[in-house]
Specification:
Spore Coat Polysaccharide Biosynthesis Protein SpsA, Chain A, seven-stranded mixed sheet, single chain, 8 helices, alpha/beta
């Protein structure tokens, strides 16, 4: 099946070439759609030279709108039967594509989440960030009657049919809870697999902040009762 890898990017001049190298090395992507969300650090200059080469398509937002908006643009542009969201910050490793795609290949899932909490190798850091993730996942499980271990994971892979007709409104990091809520309410089959994780800290440029956790709480509550 044709795989579209969607990479939302914002100010990743030091990482963009490396993540694209890693995605290509995985040899799974039929197309790589990079959505630059108004970068101003030189990322766009690098991407302009890559557009149209080695399966890479670059889409530029004129101003910063947020990760969710960039993902939405990528979803609209993707043509694959399978879509995979890949962050550009090197926290997630494309060498995990095989294990992420396996449940879809076997026909036992519509959506696959790469979980950071199922025993895969990971860098030991950012305890309170982990606690926030686990609390948000716990809230998801209560509200939507499921048993996820990592709702907030950036590795989400899914069949095209999952997002066809799905109205996604997220503009920032509320994409993860909104997408999860709508997938669960539509009773799509979610499968979790262990992945490796190498988180960067805030000093290294991590963009998600504690305020985004409060927005995620509101998003989970809101979409429990509205579509």
């Amino acid at each position: 099946m044709k795989l579209s890898v969607i990479i939302p990017v914002y100010n990743e001049v030091g990482n963009i070439e490396e993540i694209l190298k890693r995605v290509k090395a995985a040899k799974k992507a039929s197309e790589i759609i990079v959505v630059d969300d108004g970068s101003h650090d030189g990322t766009r200059d690098i991407l302009k030279n890559m557009d149209g080469k080695d399966k890479v398509r670059v889409i530029l937002h004129e101003k910063n709108q947020g990760k969710g908006a960039a993902v939405r643009t990528g979803l609209d542009a993707a043509s694959g039967e399978i879509m995979l969201i890949q962050d550009a910050d090197l926290e997630y490793d494309p060498r995990d594509y095989g294990i992420l795609l396996q449940p879809l290949d076997e026909g036992i899932a519509d959506v696959v989440y790469g979980s950071r909490f199922l025993g895969g190798p990971r860098r030991a850091t950012m305890y309170w960030h982990m606690i926030a993730n686990k609390l948000l996942t716990f809230m998801t499980n209560i509200l939507y009657d499921t048993i996820l271990s990592d709702m907030e994971t950036g590795y989400k892979v899914f069949r095209r049919k999952v997002v066809e007709g799905m109205k996604i409104r997220a503009r920032r990091f509320d994409f993860e809870p909104e997408f999860t809520a709508k997938v669960l309410k539509r009773h799509y089959r979610i499968y979790e697999v262990p992945i490796s994780f190498n988180p960067r800290d805030y000093a290294q440029g991590k963009k998600i902040k504690m305020k985004d956790a409060f927005e995620a709480v509101w998003t989970l509550l809101k979409y429990r009762f509205v579509d």
